[in-house]
Structure prediction request, 822 residues.
Amino acid sequence: MFRPGAPTSLPELPPDAPLACGPATQPAVLLLDDPQEWLAFGRPCTSAGSPLAVAADASIPADPTSQFWDSHVVLEGMHCAACALTIEDALRAVPGVLQADVSAATRRARVVWHPGQVRPSAWMDAVQKAGYSAMPAMDAFAREQRLRESRRALWRWLVAGFCMMQVMMYAWPAYVAQPGDLTGEMEQLLRWASWVITLPMVVFSCGPFFSSALRDIRLRRVSMDLPVALGMAITFVVSTAGTFDPAGIFGKEVYYDSLTMFVFFLLTGRWLELRLRDRTAGALEAVMNRLPDSVERRDADGTFARVATRRVVVGDTIRVLPGEAFPADGRITVGNTHADEALLTGESTPVARPLGSTVIAGSYNLQAPVEVLVEGTGGQTRFAQIVALMESASLQKPRLAQLADRIARPFLVAVLVAAVLAAVYWWPSDPGHALMVAVAVLIVTCPCALSLATPVAMLTAAGTLARHGVLVRNLQGLEALARVDTVVFDKTGTLTRDGMALQAVHTASGWAADEALSLAAALARQSMHPASRAVVAAAPAMDIRWAVSELHEDAGLGLVATVRDSKGVQPMRTVRLGSATHAGVAVQDGRDALQVVLAEQLADGQCLELARFDLVEQLRTEAPAVVKALEQDGVTVHLLSGDRMGAVQRVAGQAGIAQAQGECTPGGKLAALQALQAGGRHVAMVGDGLNDGPVLAGAHVSFAFGRSVPLAQSQADFVVLGDSLALVPQTVLLARRTLRVVRQNLWWAAGYNALCVPLAVVGWMPAWLAGLGMALSSLLVVLNAARLARDLPALPSSIATGPSVASAAVTIANPTTTLEPV
Prediction:
């Protein structure tokens, strides 16, 4: 442990130095004490309170020991909720560790610590002493370790399967033989052969169970491996005693066949469960590990050398090859390509990224090698904010999961007591049978399914949503969303797009609508103002009739320029485009639409109005279908906005929302929301996060569109990365499906134990059947949760495509002219 005020800089490490933790890699563990390595598996925090907001600039501070750090590690050797509680206790006991959260479903831990009191090697050593191992969550070693664990599990399963088949072959004659068919010598020979075949399975395949049980006994605690290991040990000892002493109290029968069968079934369940977890809840980790381990960086001599990604800093030039992920935010300086940004922006199709365009960390280079000037790393990137949200969500424990964790240890103690009582009850009649009844009780009552029922389903749903551009900040939000009966939408930036659309054109006498639009667009093309972009979008196809010169823009007011008709039909003139005040004409009050005026400036300084353009916010094309989908699912839809009541009513009418309220202050929105809640409604709020913080926090559950606000500062439970409102009803449907799956899992786990425990106690369930039941119980829970990994629920086909506001015809005030749809 480092003393407060101790030097914070250590010798420079090799760029590709491994980050690992384990008995054989203690020198490597000390590498993690270098402050330059902390960003590989964590980020600095602004304070030690609340959920510890991530610093906006997560680069190494001048004094890394001056603030708290939020680190994430992957754990090895844990199998259940009791293991998670044990690791949490071990971490929290380390001075300097302020918070520790461990998830049994993802086998990850979040540790909040202060470098002035403790370093990573110290709290990782505490995990090691508790009987487990830890490694940085974002390091390549963690992925390699996961693959090795999967391979070892497969080998244990194969050995157990081979031994089971051989032992069953030796046991079969005893099952089918008639009295007198088997001599005593032959029966004893078959027992010895079964013992020899079973021995490597017990040593190799059952090794992890025994080592975990011995660790628990040494540390005076209980985990789910303890009753299983006791059952294996008792069965093997009883059978061995019957083999070595056929005339003893245990010589009546041996149980090698039962032992090999339940070990094989148990390992089958665990291996399949491991594979399914990697494919379902493991989708979260797959997203979080998108960044490459290394990248080619240009050296001072102009050559490129491959270095660890964590060594890249702002100002470096890197080369990213096709198929690689961009390791940092930056700008392309050489080459052009297409990028896959589906996770980060919700854009499902590849996006063109030509020379000079920006690229974002975590997106994939699809087409050609490019050189990128790094402009953002670490916590500065959007990818880092997304990872922070996903890491936080993956370690949260929903209410139902917390309940399962609380009862895990008492339940295991009750299992041990029940097994002892069963053995005592049956001992007088048959000691061997008594011990096998105890074994059946120990195995069949292991609460693996109960501890997995909730977290696996929740994390699978969160992984499915993440793949479709919805980040779950709060797993408890899935449970709350399933109960929602009212959805409240904000208007600007949520129901409407960020831009504007042309609603109507009012022209002066002698001017056609398309001619006025063409002239206005000639000026508007020189501006990036939203009103200018709307005029350009609505104008006829690009033409070169109007030549613009001497253009000047008054920010926020409008444009003035000299225009010349290339066809010679119209004389050269000075034209203004902008607000009525800027154009020098009368202002028309009482209109909901924003008006842009096109006027000619005369020689005497007066202005002659040529046309007025009514611009309105553009409703999202899918909004009517989304509202209809929610209402068909029994959800009432409301609209709350701070905009003028007329504009709010117009948008509400287009979207099909009956309850709409305008001119709301942020406090007024919150009051309206609380009024709905006081009436017994479960309310979800959908906003853009800019001025909706209070109402997003006050709702039972909330959505924020991630492009509008820094993700780490959002108050919402769900962050929508894309632009599609359809994700809202789809998330509601998935949340309801998730809660149904959780309830099914809990009922199955409880019903399985209620049925099988009495059968095991009365001796009607042999050990092999108990092992099969336990394995199938856990496997069924994971398989049921795996159904949530499919695509998002589809909206009903009758409303999948709603009327498109963008295709509505523009109204033209000139009665003799009609524009084509825009």
In short: Residues 1-25, 48-60, 798-822 have pLDDT under 50 and may be disordered. The two ends are 68 Å apart (CA to CA).
